[in-house]
Amino acid sequence: MSFKGVTLLQIEYFLAVAEYLNFTEAAKRLYTSQPSLSKQISHMEKKLGVNLFYRTKRDVRLTAEGIILFNEINGVIGKIDQALQKCVDPMLESGSMLRIGCYDVMDTGVFLNQIIHDFKKIYPLVEIVIERHGFKKLRQKLDSGDLDTILTLSFEIDQKPGIIWDEIYKSSTCILMSIHHPLANKEGLSLSDFKAETFIMLEREESPNGYDDVIALCKSYGFVPRKVRHMPNVESQLLTIEAGEGIALTDDHIRIFRKANFRRCILKDDFLSVVMAWRVENRSPIVAVFNNYVLKQMGSIET
Q: Crossing angle, helix 8-20 and helix 34-48, to 10 degrees?
């Protein structure tokens, strides 16, 4: 890199001579020879078209041009040093915050809790905030920048402009029903066995892609749900299923407080991708370090 033919090496040599006002001492600090140092300074002066130093037999002094250049460059070099230090370890400063969001019924015990615990051991100064939200609010908070990175299902952000995402793990799609459902104790069930059931679904506005995917999956089994009840949130959906009012298609890793009241029927050939997503324009080094750490760790964690 150069400006007007001046190299960073020449700038470094200039700053050393300007600091010591002695070519011999400056050469020692730079681990170079005095003739080599003098040659580089002369080349620099020639490129700029000005003299930077007065040289006499007794001493070396900065010219007016040399003083201006020293004052301007010295501050820049300090900022470069700070930038290089942050590049080596972007988490050294206290006050760094990482805001993570996850969909409201995600079972964080599958992987997230342990990963954050281990991450904090490496970067103890980073403050981590974790929020649970429904699909719609999670999308909104990511878009607004209120959340740095989110953990959600791939259909929520697939093809969404301005978003980068990576798959964390795959989870089976399952049919969720009450333990008292007539089919709760039967094995080898298919989704087509539930074509006459009431499907308890989130309102389409909450997750348009998720809603459409459920309908598409049912069609692939040869039917369209005839009876659908719409719920404003997942909590209402689970309560309605628990009461025996219908079934739902869900991620197999959802968090259920009263597991004994539910039965899950895994659809072996259908999977959902749990992903980590963030905005392209989010240039926070903390986000980059955390996301890369998660991806690395998930390579060795069973789900």
A: 110
The pLDDT, as a whole number, for residue 203 is 96
User: Would the pTM of this model clear 0.90, i.e. be above it?
Assistant: no
Examine residue 150 and state whether it is found in any structural domain, yes or no. yes
Please check the confidence at residue 303 and state whether its pLDDT lies above 50. Answer: no
Closest residue by Cα to residue 103 from 242, 225, 202, 212: 202
Domain count, the chain: 3
Q: Would the pLDDT of 1 be above 50?
A: no
pLDDT per residue as tens digits for the range 231-280 = 999 999 999 999 999 999 998 888 876 778 999 999 988 999 999 999 98
For 71, other C-beta atoms within 10 Å of its C-beta total: 11
β-pairing, 262-279 vs 163-178, is antiparallel
Q: Encode pLDDT of 59-98 as tens digits.
A: 889 998 999 999 888 878 777 766 666 665 655 555 689 9
Shared-domain flag, residues 134 and 226:
no
**Domain range enclosing 294:** 97-169+275-298
CB atoms near residue 121 (< 10 Å): 7
- Select from 42, 67, 88 the last residue of a domain: 88
Give tens-digit pLDDT for 47-69.
999 999 998 878 889 998 999 99
